Amino acid sequence: MRSMTEGATREWRSNWTLVLASAVGFSFFSVMLAATGLFIEPLGEEFGWSRTLVSSGPSVATITTALLSPLVGLLIDKYGTRRIALPGIALTMASIAAFSLTSGAALQWLLLWCFFGVVSATIKSTAWTAAVVGSFQRSRGLALGFTLAGTALSQTLVPPMGNWLISSFGWRSAFLILALGWGGLTFLICALFFHDQRARRQAGARGGASGKEDLAEAPGLTPREALVNSALWRLGISSFVVMLLTIGLGIHLIPILTEAGVSRSNAAWLASLAGAAGLAGKLITGVLLDRFQPNWTGGLTLGAAAFAFLLLMENLRSPGLIMVAMLINGYAAGTKMQITGFLASRYAGMKAFGTIYGVLAAVLALASGLGPTFAGLIYDFAGGYEPFLAIGAGGCILGGVLIASLPAYPSWEKPDADEPVAPRAAEHDPVPGGSAAGV
Asked: Residues 289, 342, 33, 82: is their CA dihedral positive or negative?
């Protein structure tokens, strides 16, 4: 245990700036999605657009990034995360700034979102996750928790900041300031502190290390092997089902609560409570993944989301239980990508992690895009949310069981607790996360 603690401390000492840069980078990816609601009324007033048109933009971007995620993962495996992420940040800055040129044409609006989806695919979770899991072994779960908390940062800061920018300078200037201000700071931090294993190995090679050592493959599955791996299939199915249901619940949460007799103002407050619980969920789950059996930690966390659906059902809900449901849903909702990334790194290894996780990220993006429509269709067909809540409870239990029953890790992911993570001499050049040589 002592050597494991020392190994985790060594990882953080060498790579805390990487986690900081990754969290900030992921926050920039989330800026536009967190700000879209603020622009609905200004754009509607100026151009006479319907809310359906304005809000359809993020859906276009989500579908686009889902389609491109496997390709981005492949590029990350080939060129490294830094070479993909830094140009991606610059292009995303340009994309967000371009929204200030909106003329009122609906096609232009949708094309702007399509372009945003293309370029921002390079800075979605795949890039930041791949870099972090490649540098952390002992404390991988907590490092992922801090990294993915970047989206909570944008969801917390963007609404009040964006509202002030629109009120003070207008919506066109707000797009420019978000692009150049948040984006410029992100680019600077990532240029200084964001690295990956490929860049560090290449730096070592330039310093005199063997070229063969530089090109040595990390252990893990090839994409072809991953395609027939039952553990990854179960992980993908679980992630899709739980994401589909919990995102559907999140989008329809306000009408579900108002139908339960909660006022709109209180419903909004409860939704923000769920957001705070999501931030806590990322960090607590990160610690648990590092210290306990990860498949049980992930399975119980995702399975617990079933209680959020059950406690909102008509025959069970009460003011107190509704609040408990919000806390449970927020906590579990904040961990889905984290659990998926952590377990994917363990079962797939680092050989083709970008490609494999890129596919899983596409699955998550597809589920998040379909979830609201799925919940809406059930509501329209049944005339209420009760069937959706029942399906949600059952689906989350299924997802939790699929994760909890995953088999043992492959041989490269069985570190010896009596050995340190890496020799002291390699403290500033961490071994890839799946390597048995690094533990």
From this structure: positive
> Which tokens is 53 given?
């048109």
- Distance separating alpha carbons of residues 424 and 99, to the nearest angstrom: 49
Asked whether the beta carbons of 102 and 400 are under 8 A apart, the reply is no
Give the range of the structural domain holding residue 124, as residue numbers without chain letter. 13-205+212-216
Q: Are residues 391 and 271 in the same domain?
A: yes
Q: Looking at the structure, tell me whether residues 149 and 264 fall in a common domain.
A: no
Q: What whole-number distance in Å separates Cα of residue 203 and Cα of residue 72? A: 23
Per DSSP, the three-state class of 262 is coil
On whether both 133 and 240 belong to a single domain, the answer is no
User: How many Cβ atoms sit within 10 Å of the Cβ of residue 51?
Assistant: 12
Q: What is the tally of structural domains in the chain?
A: 2
Q: Are residues 183 and 274 in the same domain?
A: no
Residues 190 and 237 in one domain: no
Pull the structure tokens for residue 284: 């607590």
User: Is 425 domain-assigned?
Assistant: no
Helix, strand or coil for residue 410? coil
pLDDT in tens, the chain (439 residues): 455 566 677 888 888 889 999 999 988 988 887 777 678 778 888 888 876 677 678 778 888 888 888 888 888 888 888 999 999 999 999 999 999 999 989 899 999 999 999 999 999 888 888 888 878 877 888 888 888 778 777 777 787 788 888 889 999 999 999 999 999 999 999 999 998 765 555 455 444 444 444 434 667 888 888 888 999 999 999 989 998 898 888 767 767 777 777 776 666 566 666 667 777 777 888 888 878 888 888 888 888 889 989 988 887 777 778 878 888 877 877 687 788 888 888 888 878 888 888 888 888 888 877 887 788 888 888 888 889 999 999 999 999 999 999 888 776 655 444 333 333 333 333 333 333 223 2
Both 190 and 241 in one domain: the answer is no
311 vs 317: CA distance, rounded Å: 5
Residues 61 and 86 reside in one and the same domain: yes
Asked if 99 contacts 174 with a C-beta cutoff of 8 angstroms, the reply is no
291 and 180 co-located in one domain: no
Assigned domain for 7 exists: no
> Per DSSP, what are the bridge partners of residue 220?
349
pTM recorded for the entire structure: 0.68
Other beta carbons within 10 angstroms of residue 413's beta carbon come to 21
Helices 81-98 and 2-47 pack at an angle, to 10 degrees, of 20
The Cα angle at residue 155 between residues 151 and 160, in degrees rounded to 5: 150
